[in-house]
Design brief:
OB fold (Dihydrolipoamide Acetyltransferase, E2P), alpha+beta, globular, single chain, 5 domains, EC 3.1.13.1, binds zinc ion, Rossmann fold, 33% helix, Dis3_CSD2
Length: 1047
Amino acid sequence: MIKTERILHLKSCRGRKVRVVREHYLRERVPCYSSVCQADCVNDGKVLPGDLTHYVVPDVGVVVDYLEILEDRELQGVVFTQTACQAVQHSKGRRQYNRLRNLLKDPRHDCVLFANEFQEYSYCPREKGESQEKWQTRCVYSAAVWYYNHLAGMMDVVMITEDQEAVAQYSSLNSGVYVISVQDYLQNFWPQLQAAHDLYGSISQALQEKESEGNEREFSEHLPAEVLEAGIKSGRYIQGTLNVNKHRAQTEAFITMEDLSNKNTDMSCGVLVYGDKNRNRAMQGDMVVVELLPKSEWRGKVTALTEGQGDEKSGEDESKPLPTGRVVGILQRHWRDYVVTFPPREGSQSQSRNSQRILAVPWDRRIPKIRISTQQADALQDHRVVVRIDSWESTSLYPNGHSVRVLGRAGELETEVQTILIENCIHVPPFSDAQVREDVCPSKTEPHIHVGRRDLRESHLVFSIDPKGCEDVDDTLSVRSLAGGKLLELGVHIADVTHFVTEGSLTDLEARTRATTYYLADRRYDMLPAVLSADLCSLLGGVDRYAMSVLWELDAHTLAVNKVWFGRTIIRSAYQLHYELAQAILNGEPTEVPELAQLGSEEKDTKLAQLTQALEMLTHVARHLRAQRDRGGALELEGVEVRAQLDEERNITALVPRQPLEVHETVAECMIYANHWVARKIQETFPHQALLRRHPPPRQEFFNLLVESAKARGFTIDTRSNKALADSLDQAVDPEDPLVNRLLRMMTTQAMSEALYFSTGTQSIDQYYHYGLALDRYTHFTSPIRRYADIVVHRLLTVAIAMEGEVGPVKALASNKELEEMAQHINKKNRAAKRAQKLSTELFQCLYFKERDPQTDQRCVADAVIYSIRDDAVLTLPVFSPRYGVKGPVYLKNREGQVVAAGHDGSCEWQSGSVRRYPDHITTASSCGSSTFRLFDHITVRISVHSTHCHADRINLEVISNRPYHSTEPQQPRSQGRCQLVQEVVRLAEEAHQQAQEKAARRPKLSREEREFCQSKTPNLYSLLEEIREEALRDLNMVPQVCATTA
Ligand SMILES: [Zn+2]
């Protein structure tokens, strides 16, 4: 080892120059992390594959400015030098440096770190008079040459740099080591990687523009971090998260504080930040620091909404003044990828003749316009584009950004679906080849290794009950009588996903990132590759499968639990039933069980009797369990979103009266029971580090709407406890109109808190309670194919079982802190999944109604129910139309001051008049008399679409009669509406897509040689599997939404 001294001239983020002298040790052996290493390097961890055409070594400038391109997972064999990484750390700050470190850690990215400055033969000391940049470039080049020699010339090495002098100087020095520009590299090696090309274009454009920035100040400077910290400590400043009011995005934002223990009750509803100067470049979600303004400058928030909301008018109603402040600094930016729309080019857009700067409008109304420099301004008109923000200087009215990728033309189905995904930070790239190879690894699939597994194949009659056509069967059941009928044994057997998905494997990382399967209106994105979810893990009928089982031994008479057994098993499901079939068997109706079709009549009868008996026993147990929970106060709720996941009718989020079969509840009850007992087990074994799910009781004030609405109809809702609430909801039934009870349950759902995953160490035991299910402990164990939480729980349970002594060494568990971080991540992803599902449903509604003329098309007219009279100055009636599941306000007063007046036949028109609001109804008075709109009245609405081009379209409802809607057409089954709606929109989009494809087919394809420059030489195993998956998606009607319960 050689010791030298190294002098660093660093420039800190704040611009100070620092001179640092460090001792520097050089070694001969520094790992190369290449699988073609000839020198026996100690290559722990990630290594670069050997079957590539070259490795690529980016220069410092490339890593600093173009890291995003290197983040593309298709680029393989990337060697990051220590020189480049340190440069990122020093010049770009922690955020960017962490991104680079995460990239290096993530096994899904094929890149490694080479400690070139510790390698004796690649290190070059800085020469006198040599500029830092030149020296760094020389270091990186020297590292590239070292690689080529170290790998004995078996791998070509390409250094990429934006320094043209370096290209001239180095490119011909060594054969096998190429030095080229980023653009040349992409063009020669990755001609088909359009995303990378686009990104290169937009980043280099943005870099050029940056140099020509003006210097007139538009905002005050942010205070330095030390000053902010001291100010927060002394109480002069307040720290919080900025939330922009989406109806008044230009002017109104609130700071919400995490720490509500703040004694100042004035602040409990947050601090208002009014206007963009006070907001001082802070954006939605940023962690900011505010200073309160003097009381004389406090303002209220604007409360009135009128038709065409969003346009600000002065002189509207304001609430009483709130604490009002201005942003003095930003602790943490919450920048993400944004979808923007490039507006039509108008004279006013370009500031000068040569300027390519465009003010793009973000899809999210809360985000300010973003200035993008591009040469494609014309081509991108009317397109939705993903952009990233680079900076927002105090001299600039708008943030500066660059485009990342073009999604497509605004308004097209695929563009809009992608927009929804990106806006919710949902990344669902295709599963990689490496992942799929890992999943079908034979050592995991060979069925002869059952060590430590209990074999239930002969002893237990196991069956599954799912919606028709369900492929990913993650739960099965068994029930049998023991000890001559004195005991009953109930069994729940769940797919043993963690047997196949090893912790830390590529598949595991991807599943963890996704955290859940995403269900949109017309498609789904699986958490696990199809080879696992629909085959290896899926508990299909007639084949041997691994399971995680819970077996309860119950007293046959009292059904009290004697014993519980948890463990790994091997099962063979005898019947794959669907709900309708199971219910028919229970009802004693004549049925055809497919598994028995081939048998002789005697054998068939025996087997059917066996199955019937098992189903009856199961129903008996489930009834008992349900009654037990009912006594504790379990709630049965209904809601648009909740129903969407529970739907077995093969509609997407159909909010139609469903005739629930008892067998639905039976299965759900057994799953709830298993989840509960597993929760108890892991909580008892790991009091501080188990993953549970809690459902906090709702805040009483959220029930006001529910209580008032019910009262208007003569019902009393008691919200003092979940039990009282459940009982009073059961009572609130209007025999004339079943919709009333459903609407009340919908309102109850809306008042509920969100159920959350958490680590047991972060909460006191009394906080573990699940309010909705009335259970003291709960978790998710029964759907590991669709939810990552269940995978975590399976792993915890496995360790808990192992700790009981019999099997093997115990693995280190995640700490309380790590587990809580995981819980937060899953909670966040679940929220995103829910929002995306809701947005996609609204998208389909809009696409459907956009195609029709609301004035002439009868399908645009529907029945709706008034479900609330809001307690504010808003003259709107929230209504709900069950046929299409559409919810929204109707306006009773317009801009011109006219009101809705109903004639003798109920038909409505705009007339000048006045409006009065009462607790349970609104009346309008005009020259033709007065009209009344009561809570729960059925009215007729016309549905149209309000298009906004840059944002999501919105459904617009207009009251056309204050009487119920009577269709002139024969009434179609109500449940059909939503289903057809989705089908039709998909059909139209497919036609458009086909036309576009035909057009694209005429374009020249890439030559074979061009394609062979790509780095991966292995055949694409994935594409084959993906095709199969896509087949399944297309046939969505056959693939039900979610088979199990939510809760
Ligand atoms: Zn090596």
